[in-house]
Structures are given as C-alpha cells and as structure tokens.
C-alpha cells in the first residue's frame, strides 16, 4: 500500500472538494468512502433541487453529485469505495495507518475526517426476501423519477421522505399507494396536506406481511398488507416497490475514546476554524466539524476543506505558500485549460 500525503475519510461534498483542493496544492490523496458510491448524503435526495451552492443555479442532487465527483477526481486521487474505517493509529515512523472493518490498512502522512452527519443505511423491510429484488424493483431510494413514469407504485413509510416521494410520483405514475403502520405521519405540514388532497391511495395502520414474486422469482409483482385494526389482508399489485422506513446510523470511529477527539453533543468533532482537531495531524471538515461560527452548508464544507488542506501543506512543507493560487492564475490548470478549450471551443 502506497503512502499518501492525505487519507480523506468520507467521499461527500467536503471530502471531494478536499481532494480537488489538495490537487491544487500538489498533494497526493486517497479517498476512503463507506458507501459504494461517492456523493455522501446527497445520494438520499438525488431528484430534489439544490439551490444553496454558490454560483450554481438550482440543480438536482444527482447532477450536483456528478459535478462534485468530476471535480473531486480532477487530480486523480485514489478512490476506495465500500470500506468503513474503524480505527487509525500512529505508526513508528510517524505515519497514520487507517484501518477498515475488513482489515485493509491505508497509510498517509495526515488524515482528514469528512464523515458528515454520520453513516446512514436505509432500514430494510423486516421480511425475508431475495436480495436480487433490490436490483430489480425493490428500492430504498429514488434516483430518477422518470424511471417510474406510467407505473403502479407502492411506497412503504410515513416520514417526510416517503410522503414527498408519493407527492412527486403521483404526478407521473399510473397509480400510487402509500402504506403506513399508523395514522400519524412525520411529514412537514405542507407535504402532508398535499398528500391527503392528492390521488395517492393511503393505507394506514397497515404493515407489509408478505412479498409476492413472479413465478420465476425474478421480481416482485405484489405485496400483501395487513390492517392491524381490522386484521384484514389486502393484495396490492405493483410495478415498483419503494421503501423508506428510516435509517440506521452507525457510530463512527471517532467515538473511540482512545483517539482523544474532543466531541460536542457526543458526536461532532470540536476543532478550530482552520479544521484542526485535538489530535495533531488529523483534521475535520464538513458537517462533522464543530467550531464557533460553523456554517453547515455545502459552501461551508468547501471552506473547511480548503483550510484543512492549507494547514496540511504547510505542516508538510513549511516553506509552502499559505494558500493555493486561485484557479484562474494557477499553473496546475494549464494543461486542463488547454483540454477544456479544445473540448468546447475548437
């Protein structure tokens, strides 16, 4: 395993921008991401419009992820997916060894923690079913609304995300059913009012009791739900089954007392406005970082990332400039500018 200047733990907005900015400072970077895709929590709302990233008109979460990933990969960082970091330690030669749950070790001179609001995994239906359905028509997230156009959709859940999906899908689907375990919806008032005024068929006090596949067992054709007030069973035919019944939030490695992080509210890493933490050589950026005046926006995460990288650059090379040159005057972009001009203007 090669030794990198920085291991960035987390591949969301903060981590991706840190990788980009580190490239501007000629630092060698590795991103280690718990999930199988980059983009962080924006993957939970790919069809929602994001308005609050400076200089970018309103765009979908999916488009923003594509743009962030393209930028984050601009200087060819090593990207390791589907690896959850469980601990790190300082080696005898003053390197950091970050270790994943699967036993892989990643060596670097410095670490940036960019794990956001936590490691969230969607709760699965508490039923036995073939996992290949998740590759067919069982969804725990919605990436492209148009993929559901003209179809029969059943949504399971009663939170704001489930209600929001129902409100959006009813406009393009053939029919939409919403199944919820009780009659209390944890949705924003506006979304709930829109739901009850819509053409969505709502089944309250109901739980999914059975998943019914086609004859070959390839995909789901219907589900059976049971009303816990009447004990009545209902079969709902479907083309697509969408489930949003909450998320499991795994504890991050930074909770380990042996690492000596200072935590606020037993979660956020307390640090400085320059992203320094109580652990020398380890920096925190994005939502996981807490300091007086912290701004929890994507724009704020970018600022954290630049500060962390600048601190690292000077710690590794005390003669280095305090910060990178802006991109319009930075020589590292000469070749990339030439490529862009050839792509768009020639």
TrEMBL record:
Keyword Oxidoreductase carried by entry: yes
EC number: 1.18.1.2
Top-level EC class as recorded in UniProt: oxidoreductase
Cofactor: FAD
Pfam families assigned to the protein according to its UniProt record, in alphabetical order: Pyr_redox_2
Residues that, per the record, bind FAD: 33, 41, 45, 85, 120, 287, 328
Catalytic activity line of the entry: 2 reduced [2Fe-2S]-[ferredoxin] + NADP(+) + H(+) = 2 oxidized [2Fe-2S]-[ferredoxin] + NADPH
The UniProt record lists the keyword DNA repair: no
Keywords: FAD, Flavoprotein, NADP, Oxidoreductase
Cofactor: binding comment: Binds 1 FAD per subunit.
Family listed: Belongs to the ferredoxin--NADP reductase type 2 family.
Protein name: Ferredoxin--NADP reductase
């Amino acid at each position: 395993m090669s030794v990198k200047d920085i291991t960035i733990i987390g591949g969301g907005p903060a981590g991706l921008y840190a990788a980009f900015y580190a490239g501007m400072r000629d630092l060698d970077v590795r991103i280690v991401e718990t999930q199988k895709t980059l983009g962080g929590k924006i993957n939970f709302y790919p069809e929602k419009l994001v308005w609050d990233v400076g200089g970018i008109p309103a765009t979908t979460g999916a488009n923003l992820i594509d743009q962030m990933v393209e930028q984050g990969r601009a200087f060819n960082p090593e990207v390791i997916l589907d690896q959850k970091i469980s601990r790190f330690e300082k080696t005898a030669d003053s390197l950091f060894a970050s270790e994943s749950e699967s036993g892989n070790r990643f060596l670097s001179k410095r670490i940036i923690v960019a794990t956001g609001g936590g490691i969230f995994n969607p709760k699965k239906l508490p039923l036995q079913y073939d996992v290949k359905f998740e590759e067919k028509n069982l969804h725990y997230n919605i990436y492209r609304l148009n993929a559901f156009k003209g179809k029969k959709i059943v949504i399971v859940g009663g939170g704001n995300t489930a209600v929001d999906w129902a409100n959006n899908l009813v406009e393009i689907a053939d029919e939409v059913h919403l199944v919820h375990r009780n009659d209390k919806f944890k949705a924003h008032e506006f979304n709930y009012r829109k739901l009850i005024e819509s053409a969505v068929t709502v089944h309250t006090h109901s739980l999914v009791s059975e998943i019914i596949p086609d004859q070959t067992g390839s995909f789901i054709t219907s589900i059976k739900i049971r009303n816990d007030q009447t004990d009545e069973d209902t079969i709902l035919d479907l083309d697509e089954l969408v489930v949003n019944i909450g998320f499991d939030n795994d504890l991050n490695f930074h909770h380990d007392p042996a690492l000596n992080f200072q935590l606020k509210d037993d979660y956020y890493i307390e640090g400085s406005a320059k992203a320094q933490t109580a652990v020398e050589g380890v920096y925190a950026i994005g939502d996981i970082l807490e300091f007086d005046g912290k701004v929890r926006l994507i724009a704020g995460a970018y600022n954290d990332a630049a500060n962390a990288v600048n601190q690292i650059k000077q710690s590794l090379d005390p003669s280095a400039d305090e910060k990178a040159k802006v991109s319009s005057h930075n020589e590292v972009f000469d070749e990339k500018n030439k490529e862009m001009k050839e792509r768009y203007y020639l």
